[in-house]
Amino acid sequence: MKAFRTKSAKETERAGADVASRLEPGDLVLVTGDLGAGKTTFVRGACRALGVTEPVVSPTFTIGRRYRAGGGRVVSHLDLYRLADMGAEEDGLLDDYVTADAISFVEWPLVGAEGLPEPAASVEIGHAGADEREISVEWSGSRVEPGTQ
Ligand code: ADP
Ligand code: MG
Fold it and tell me: For ligand 1, what atom is nearest to the CA of residue 6?
């Protein structure tokens, strides 16, 4: 387990970049935490590090977006917050995003996580007062080992 304590959104983006540097296509990262904890901020930092140049904001009218990243890679970004409203329990909806060719980030995976494959990493972000956040990163996938790249 790796832990970060960040003091600004920029530092949380940096934590996302650190995690991103260890990911490969097919990897899934689950990002949990309360509203406003910094999940999207973390994913934005990861996306930037992977070479995504589009704006990275929470998907609003869909559960996910796919971005073109550097080196021909694809990054998927899902927010399952409104999953139930969207009737997304239907089989296969997440399959359009969490694909073998993409590096995938999923916010709020506590809802609907049963439809997801085994994650490479699970990230938890918690408020730690004012602009401080506690971020823990648990690596669980066997394919990508922290510190081996
Ligand atoms: P979530 O996706 O978890 O709902 P967001 O990333 O959209 O959260 O929003 C986090 C908000 O908190 C942003 O407005 C960001 O600027 C602010 N913030 C302040 N301090 C931090 C920090 N240390 N890490 C992440 N975000 C922070
Ligand atoms: Mg968000």
Answer: 23
